[in-house]
Design goal:
The chain contains four helices and five strands, in the order βαβαβαββα. It is an alpha/beta fold and 123 residues long. 33% of the residues lie in helices and 21% in strands. Strands 2-1-3-4-5 form a five-stranded parallel beta sheet, sandwiched between helices. It has one domain: Response regulator (Rossmann fold, 3-Layer(aba) Sandwich).
């Protein structure tokens, strides 16, 4: 993503309340924010507009968050990926380059993660 490009964020969680909380918490972070309640919906959205940053829940209907992230990375190399979860998956199944964001994740950590992939990180 170029420095002039508007970042695009995709939040994926089966719980609409989690998605709403993420949007509220991050409303002042610059960029386009979209949300999906399933991996299938997220893949459709990413096809229409590839995200620069994805935060996906680990447990999703039909496909787990790691499988979703793998599919998104195959379509959009370089996408920054975070796994939002209440339980840490086994270390041996987490591919390199995925940031684990344990729920509840401190707001400052979420913001720092998003900004690190947006080109708007503090210098």
């Amino acid at each position: 993503m170029t420095a002039d490009a508007t970042p695009s964020y995709l939040f994926v969680d089966e719980d609409p309340l989690q998605l709403s909380a993420l949007r509220r918490l991050l409303r002042d972070v610059p960029g386009t924010k979209r949300s999906a309640t399933s991996a299938e919906e997220a893949l459709r959205m990413a096809e229409e507009e590839p995200p620069s940053v994805v935060i996906a829940a680990y447990i999703l209907p039909g496909m787990d968050g790691l499988s979703l992230i793998a599919a998104l990375r195959s379509r959009t190399p370089g996408v920054l990926c975070g796994l939002h979860t209440t339980q840490l998956p086994g270390r041996d199944i987490i591919p390199p380059g995925i940031t684990i964001l344990l729920k509840p994740c401190p707001p400052e950590r979420l913001r720092a993660f998003l900004l690190s992939g947006s080109g708007n990180a503090p210098k």
